[in-house]
UniProtKB/TrEMBL annotation:
Membrane-spanning ranges: none
Entry-linked PANTHER family: RIBONUCLEASE 3, RIBONUCLEASE III
One Gene Ontology term of the molecular function aspect: double-stranded RNA binding
RNase III domain sequence ranges: 43-162
InterPro entries: RNase_III_dom, RNase_III_sf
Annotated Gene Ontology cellular component terms: nucleus
PROSITE patterns attached to this UniProt entry: RNASE_3_2 (PS50142)
Organism the protein comes from: Rubroshorea leprosula
Example GO BP: RNA processing
Source organism superkingdom: Eukaryota
The protein's name: RNase III domain-containing protein
Leader peptide range in chain numbering: 1-24
Length: 185
């Protein structure tokens, strides 16, 4: 009887150890996969650069995927991101000066929305042209590609937190670190 109990005990022990060993082995495999693949490690770096860590990394992946690469792309995210950027800049401008004229506010929003200016510069500073996935025929340095990827980041953050304010704050930090152009902060 005692011997049987002992055998059962050993069997349980062995099962437990082999399961945890397999788990550990699988985890190590995942880890080396993550570290050695350029796209996931670029996403890690990007999150550090913008000072925001995604709960759902799939959203950032999608933000860094151009329409030429996949149907699961950043087109819609970049529209949301564009609105996030415009509203955070409007909010910031009005907080700074409640008496700002409609003309001046429109100008500020217009500047921030220009593809050739603000978002391409911001996107290039983050090195998005090296991160965004495009088809072999697409030039990932083209302003429209960099810009839509840049905007999509903030659409993705808004979805990740469920709050466009959070995304706007991340934008102001990313854009604001080296402002002067675009709009005065
Ligand atoms: C890609 O686009 C950038 C920016 O417009 C341009 O400077 C570069 O020459 C283009 N590269 C190719 C291979 O077309």
């Amino acid at each position: 009887m005692n011997f049987r109990c002992f055998k059962v005990f050993i069997a349980i022990l062995l099962t437990f150890f082999s399961v945890s060993w397999v788990n550990a082995a699988t985890k190590n495999e995942d880890r080396s996969f993550v570290l050695s693949s350029p796209f996931p490690s670029a996403l890690e770096t990007l999150q550090k650069q913008i000072g925001y860590t995604f709960k759902n990394i799939a959203l950032l992946k999608r933000a860094m995927t151009h329409a030429s690469f996949s149907e699961e792309n950043n087109k819609a995210l970049s529209i949301l991101g564009g609105h996030v950027i415009e509203s955070s800049v409007s909010l910031y401008s009005l907080e700074k000066d409640i008496d700002i004229s409609a003309k001046d506010l429109n100008q500020v929003v217009l500047e921030i929305s220009k593809v050739e200016a603000s978002c391409t510069i911001d996107g290039m500073q983050l090195g998005l042209e090296k991160v965004v996935r495009v088809s072999p025929k697409t030039n990932s340095s083209a302003p429209i590609v960099v810009c839509s990827a840049f905007r999509a980041i903030f659409g993705a953050i808004a979805l990740d937190t469920g709050k466009s304010d959070d995304a706007g704050n991340v934008f102001l930090k990313v854009h604001g670190r080296k402002v002067g152009r675009g709009f005065a902060m």
